[in-house]
Structures are given as C-alpha cells and as structure tokens.
C-alpha cells in the first residue's frame, strides 16, 4: 500500500474542544502532498465565544468567521477532502476530540475516522529537546511556515510523517505506526440503537 493519508489541524475559539473556528487539511498520496485546503468555521452555538488567549495564538476573531460556514454546513467539505483516509495530526487526540465534540454540539454524526498522532511518531523517530510542531517540522526539513495557521500546520504535520516514514523505511501509514510502536486509533462514535424486533 502507498503512503496515503490526510493531515488535519483545527484552531479553536476558546478552551472548549467543540469551538472549532478553522480547519486545515493536507492530502498525501504516495508519500507526496498533492492538495491542501483550509477554511474558517463558525463555531457551534454555545461554543462560539472567542477568548483573547486563543485569538492571541491564531489571530482569528469573531468578526472573521461571521460569513464562514457553520460546523454542520462545512462537515461535508471536510469529509469530501479527507475521504476514507487515516487522519494525522500533531497531538491528534485534540483534533479528533474537536471533530467529535463539535459534532456532538450540533447533533451531527461524527465520521469514525482512524487517526495517528505525529507527535507520538516524532518522539519515536527524532531525538529532540522539544517536540513542538515547528521544531519537529524543521528536523523533517520543513521550515518557515506560519505556525497556528491551520493549513500551514496541517502541511507541516504531513511533511513530518512523510519524513518519518522515509527514515524508518515504512511504505504506508499502518507500517509506520507498527514500526515505531504507536496506535492507529479511531474516533469513538455511538453504536446504532438496537431495533426491537416484533415477532
């Protein structure tokens, strides 16, 4: 199997993981980035307050997302870009939780994506003093990107995984995860309710 996956990065409006206000995506096919995308999102109601701390990190304000799609309206775009790929993110548990919690907040079905954490992979592959995204990306040969721009972060994450796979000789995502000893996790979604059968 080829090295195919989609890297993803969310920015949030506040401390709630449901407060997605931007997403970035980078599609990898055969170990090469072939497409990127990113857009602003109106966070779900009840999770849409922009806190100063978050805005200082990513620069996004409430006015910036006023004309953006709501979470529900952009979910098909996100799923259309990622398809059935394994998702990759730096500290992937956070980004998987954003997907799950935002869907919970809006009542949308959360796609049961499988995912791998590039932070966990980088700790196995590189010997660094810090495993923050910019430092790991630099070790992978990817420098000068705008950290906390969601699309730039997704692209940096993709480059880390491409480099890590090359270094350990892994031909695909599952081989990479197995070789370095990390899990391919899956977003937990509720099982359909059992339908009572009438005799």
Question: How do you describe this structure in short?
Answer:
The chain has 199 residues and is α/β, with parallel strands linked by helices. Helices cover 38% and strands 20% of the residues. The protein contains seven helices and seven strands; from the N terminus they run βββαβαβαβααααβ.
Question: What's the topology here?
Answer:
Blueprint: E1 5-12, E2 20-29, E3 32-42, H1 52-58, E4 69-70, H2 71-82, E5 87-89, H3 92-106, E6 114-117, H4 118-125, H5 133-139, H6 150-168, H7 173-180, E7 185-186
Parallel strand pairs: 1-5, 3-4, 5-6
Antiparallel strand pairs: 1-2, 2-3, 6-7
Helix pairs in contact: 4-6, 5-6
Rough shape? globular
> How are the strands of the largest sheet arranged?
4-3-2-1-5-6-7
Radius of gyration: 17 Å
Mean pLDDT: 95
The total tally of domains equals: 1
Task: Tell how many strands the DSSP assignment holds.
Answer: 7
Low-confidence stretches: 194-199
- CATH classification class: Alpha Beta
- Name the quaternary structure: single chain
User: So, CATH architecture?
Assistant: 2-Layer Sandwich
């Amino acid at each position: 199997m080829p090295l195919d996956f989609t890297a993803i990065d969310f920015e949030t409006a506040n401390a709630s993981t449901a407060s997605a206000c931007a997403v970035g995506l980078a599609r990898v096919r055969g170990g090469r980035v072939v497409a990127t995308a990113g857009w602003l999102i109106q966070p779900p109601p009840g999770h849409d307050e922009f806190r100063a701390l978050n805005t200082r990190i990513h620069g996004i304000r409430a006015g910036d997302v006023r004309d953006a799609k709501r979470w529900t309206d952009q979910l098909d775009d996100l799923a259309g870009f990622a398809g059935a790929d394994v998702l990759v993110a730096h500290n992937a548990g956070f980004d998987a939780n954003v997907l799950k919690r935002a869907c919970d907040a809006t009542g949308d079905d959360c796609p049961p994506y499988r995912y791998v954490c590039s932070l966990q992979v980088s700790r196995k592959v590189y010997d660094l003093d810090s495993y923050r995204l910019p430092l790991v990306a630099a070790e992978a040969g990817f420098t000068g990107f705008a950290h906390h721009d969601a699309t730039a972060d997704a692209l940096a994450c993709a480059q880390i995984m491409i480099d890590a796979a090359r270094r350990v000789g892994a031909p695909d995502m599952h081989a990479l995860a197995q070789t370095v000893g990390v899990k391919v996790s899956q977003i937990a979604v509720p099982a359909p309710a059992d339908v009572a059968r009438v005799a």
